[in-house]
Design a protein that fits this description.
With 516 residues, this protein is an alpha+beta fold. The protein contains eleven helices and 17 strands. The strands form three sheets. The protein has an eight-stranded antiparallel barrel. Strands 1-2 form a two-stranded antiparallel sheet. The protein has a two-stranded antiparallel ribbon with strand order 3-4. Helix 3 (101-193) runs antiparallel to helix 5. The longest helix has 93 residues, at 101-193. It is flat and about 145 Å long.
């Protein structure tokens, strides 16, 4: 691997040099020799041999030289030359003849200072190389946006051509209609002036012919107009271009405040990140997320670029973190590709900010003909059933309530009406095994609407199934093994209960609320 031999290209295994094999760094961070990069470029695209990331390029010279790698290679060569020299070390014999100890000390000080400057040069050259790579990425993005803008312009031209053709057809049909109307008016006048039977028959024949032509014209108008393709294309192109223009909120002539650009304490890329408002992927913390202390954090979350991840023997799972109505929501872990520019946090750290006294979970319900409705549940603090409910909302143990169906309505329309769900195993009411070894504990009772409780109880082999009460019980009766209460969205559950088939209602998403 490259870590073992940093002085050689990991593709061709040749040592880097100052010519064809000069090291260059791709925007994804991997380094290869110029020759291998040129060989890998096809049709203006380059696929990184290490991570398979796609980059737009026509030549290796578009990517920055890795001065850091070159400096490392030079050091390695110097070390190799030193170890190969079989020359015994000479004891220090004091300063050279003619140079005092003070002058010798000054020489050594200058050498040390020069070495420090060389190291600083190498660091800045490395930063410049990284910055150039960022500039290359931005140029590629601008070209891609330019191509998309050109595509929009071409779509607009095509739509206008269709409109021109349609307008020409309308003008032609209008001309024919005006002529037909004029003929009909003339026929009407002719009928008023006929005096003989022969004139009547002749005029009626002419009228019939004129009527037939006008009727054909009317039929063609109904059949030809409007042209569906023309109208649909025009409307869609207009909507697309309007949306694109509305998103252009920045002024092209605006310039950024450049006072901070002279801050020597910041690296080049740190200043770039300050200007763009970006946060380096390795610098986002759970504390930033929890407190939303920086505006860029909020923008990242709103853009869907913050994920909680968990590694296991089968690979990586990731969970979305979203912001809605001022609340942060952690969605369940799923085996899904992690976006290239995503900021990731450990799932265990994110869940760790939850306090047992304020744990909120949510279930999103949907069925045919409805919009998604969110049900938020405040879980009873520090009970095994509540902890199991959190696990099934976050997917930390590999199982989740996501995509499970509601199974049954009990006492529909009667006091104590409730709905059952939560079979994450078989989705038919026969599954729902416990995720924790012991669910026994001190649980409260409740007969109020909104109570969430274990349908089969904590000792049952399907104890993951839950029930939500939608109507109050009467006569002092109460449900046992209550693990929480609905704090919002009870109307969503009631609407689901009134649906014609409760098994068509699905938990399309779930998760927990992260306290800010």
């Amino acid at each position: 691997m490259m870590d073992n031999k940093p002085e050689e290209c990991s593709v061709c295994f040749n040592d880097y040099d100052d010519n064809q094999l000069r090291p260059r760094t791709l925007p994804c961070g991997h380094t290869f020799c110029s020759q291998c990069i040129d060989n890998a470029i096809k049709n203006g695209q380059l696929t990184c041999p290490s991570c398979r990331a796609e980059h737009a390029a026509t030549a290796a010279t578009q990517f920055p030289i890795s001065y850091a790698v070159e400096a490392l290679v030079r050091k390695l060569k110097n070390i190799q030359l030193t170890t190969e020299e079989v020359v015994p070390a000479k004891p220090y014999e004091g300063p050279a003849r003619g140079i005092s100890k003070k002058l010798h000390s000054m020489v050594e000080e200058q050498k040390s200072f020069i070495s420090i400057l060389i190291t600083s040069c190498e660091e800045v050259l490395s930063q410049l190389g990284e910055y150039r790579g960022q500039l290359g990425d931005w140029k590629t993005h601008h070209l891609q946006l330019q191509d998309r803008l050109y595509a929009l312009v071409e779509q607009n031209k095509s739509a206008m051509q269709l409109l021109e053709l349609e307008d020409t057809s309308v003008v032609d049909m209008t001309t024919h209609g005006e002529e037909g109307k004029t003929q009909l008016q003339a026929m009407l006048g002719s009928l008023d002036t006929v005096n003989t039977a022969q004139e009547v028959f002749m005029t009626i024949n002419e009228v019939d012919q004129c009527n037939m032509e006008v009727e054909n014209w009317l039929r063609k108008c109904q059949e030809l107009f409007p042209d569906v393709k023309t109208v649909h294309t025009s409307v869609k192109v207009q909507e697309t271009i309007k949306e694109a223009l509305e998103m252009m909120t920045t002024e092209t002539g605006a310039t950024a405040d450049s006072e901070h650009l002279g801050d020597s304490a910041s690296s080049i890329m740190n200043k770039v990140q300050e200007i763009t408002g970006e946060i380096p992927q390795k610098q986002l913390t759970v504390e930033d997320l929890r407190r939303m202390v920086r505006e860029p954090v909020k923008r990242l979350v709103e853009a869907g670029r913050v994920l909680a991840v968990q590694e296991d023997q089968d690979g990586r799972c990731s969970a979305r973190i979203t912001l809605q109505d001022g609340q942060l929501y952690l969605h369940p872990l799923l085996r899904q590709p992690t976006p290239t520019h995503a900021h990731t946090l450990q799932e265990s750290e994110v869940v760790g900010v939850l306090e047992p006294s304020c744990t909120l979970a949510f279930l999103d319900l949907r069925w045919a003909g409805s919009t998604r409705g969110r049900v938020t549940i405040r879980l009873t603090p520090d009970t095994p059933l509540a902890r199991q409910f959190v696990l099934l909302c976050t997917g930390q143990r590999g199982h989740t309530y996501r995509n499970t169906k509601l199974l049954q309505v009990w006492d529909k329309g009667e006091p104590g009406e409730c709905v059952r769900g939560g079979d994450y195993e078989s989705n038919d009411g026969k599954g729902g095994a416990p995720l924790l070894p012991d669910l026994q504990g001190q649980y409260r009772e409740s007969g109020r609407a909104g109570a969430v409780w274990a349908w089969w109880g904590p000792g049952d082999p399907t104890s993951a199934q839950f029930a939500i009460t939608t109507r109050d019980l009467q006569d002092g009766r109460q449900w046992s093994d209550v693990l929480g209460d609905v704090v919002s969205g009870l109307d969503v559950v009631r609407a689901a209960v009134n649906h014609s088939d409760i098994k068509e209602v699905t938990v399309v998403d779930c998760g927990v609320v992260l306290p800010l």
